Amino acid sequence: MESLKIEGLAIAGPSCVSDSVSKFVGEEKKQLELMMMEEEEDDGDDDEGSFGKFVPGPLLPLKEQIEKDKEDESLRRWKEKLLGCLETDLNGQMEPEVKFHSIGIISSDFEEISNTPLPFNEKQSKGVLLFTLREGSEYRLKLTFSVLHNIVSGLSYTNTVWKNGIQVDESRGMVGTFGPQREAYVHTLEEETTPSGILARGLYSAKLKFKDDDKRHHMELDYSFEIRKRN
């Protein structure tokens, strides 16, 4: 008896394999190859760096979400915790709205947090100089925002940085899921470290974008920053 091995699959049989078996094995091999190719294509399609393959359910008005499954005690408590008491926002509006109030910088280079109101006013340039840091500094961007009308699910961000027109960095992160509430949310993004060296110093331009699981874009902010020599 000899065994026929095809990509890790062993088939025992006589040395002279019949045409029907050969055809069957060939078809199985083709199917395996097609499946592998489809998986590779699926992995490559995610050029925006989305978080997993989560497919969100249909969007419902906030009032309907509160009333849905109200007999489920644990789910009701979870909704109350997420949504709070928001009778004034139960207006049936479907689309959630994320309103950004300010952006700031937290760093050991600053004694206090620097905050800039959003949106930038008309007197400020499109790529306003948001902050100046020394090379090799650790920092975080801090955002203050409100959520209105509905739950925003899977809010995430992309921060892309260029120097002299060449992209030098891109970071992505998950902010979270937020329900509407009267108080503004305060969130700090993942910690970043400015590069070091003579070539790293100078002015940079950047674009910060926010979107949710439903592919709604909530903010696109152009700004600039400067890296200086550490004394």
TrEMBL record:
It is found in: Cytoplasm. GO terms for cellular component: cytoplasm. One of its GO terms (molecular function) is GTPase activator activity. Keywords: Cytoplasm, GTPase activation. Gene3D superfamilies: Coagulation Factor XIII, subunit A, domain 1 (2.70.50.30). InterPro entries: Ig_E-set, Rho_GDI, RhoGDI_dom_sf. It holds the Pfam family Rho_GDI. It comes from the Eukaryota. PANTHER family: RHO GDP-DISSOCIATION INHIBITOR, RHO GDP-DISSOCIATION INHIBITOR 1-LIKE. Belongs to the Rho GDI family. This is Rho GDP-dissociation inhibitor 1-like. It comes from Penstemon smallii.
